[in-house]
Design a protein that fits this description.
- By secondary structure, this protein is mainly alpha-helical.
- It has one domain: Orthogonal Bundle (Non-ribosomal Peptide Synthetase Peptidyl Carrier Protein, Chain A).
- The chain has five helices and no strands.
- Helix 1 crosses helix 5.
- It is globular, with a radius of gyration of 12 Å.
- The protein starts with 19 loop residues before the first helix and ends in a 5-residue tail after the last helix.
Length: 98
């Protein structure tokens, strides 16, 4: 499976990736758009949680919990702290999704 960060700066990332990464990205877009009340097309792999979406620490915890439920994965606190962009989240979750 390809790492998303190779092409994360593309605004239309979904057009350039295939398979599982694209499906994971689309679902994360939906979750993030709903939670932070932004249009899904404004959410791409380069979107930064804190800087672009104004995610504070409570928002981050809630987002991680929602992603854990959505994808049926466990994200440890130390791993969650490393997730700074949507691309980071996709790269972390993709290998864990079956």
């Amino acid at each position: 499976m390809r790492k998303l960060d190779i092409i994360k700066w593309s605004d239309n990332i979904g057009a350039y990736i295939k398979g599982d990464l694209a499906m994971v990205l689309e679902k994360i877009r939906e979750v993030v758009a709903k939670k932070f009340k932004v249009q899904p097309e404004k959410v791409n792999a380069a979107t930064r949680l804190r800087e672009d979406l104004n995610v504070d620490s409570l928002d981050a915890v809630e987002l991680i919990m929602e992603l854990e439920d959505t994808f049926n994965v466990k994200i440890a606190d130390d791993e969650a702290q490393k997730l700074k962009t949507i691309g980071d989240i996709v790269n972390f979750i993709s290998p864990k999704v079956k």
